[in-house]
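Appendix B. Chain record.
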Amino acid sequence: MNTPLLITRTTAQSVDVACTRLQEISAAHKFGVQAYHNLREKMESKGVAFGRECRVVEVCNPRHAALVLGQDIAISTALPCRISVYEEAGRTVLATIKPTAMLGMFDAPGAAATAQEVEDTLIRIMDETCHA
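C-alpha cells predicted for this chain:
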C-alpha cells in the first residue's frame, strides 16, 4: 500500500531479524520499546487463522511524548508510535503512520515541530534497520 500518510521501507531481512534490529536501533535513538505484538500468534491464540507474519513494535521517546502531551492530553490517543513489520511479495516491510499526519489531527500547533523531529528520527530508525 502506498499512501502519503505512511512511511515505508523494505528489506530482504526476515521479519524476525528486522524486529530484533528495529528494537535495538530504536533504543540507540532513545526510543524505548513500549510493547511488541505478534499479530499472527495473537490472532491464532484466539482461534482466528492468520497465516501472514505481522508484528507491531510500539516505540516512544519520553521527552517528545511529554512535549506533545503538554500541548493536548488527547494526543495520548495517538501514542506511542507504532511500526509494523510484515511480509509482502517476498520482502519484509516496515511501515508507520507519519507522526506529522497523526498529530495534525489535533489542534496543537506547538506540537508540529516535535512531530517533525519524531518523524525524522523514525525514518532514520527504519532506514538503519533495513540497511544492515
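Further analysis of this model is presented in Appendix C.
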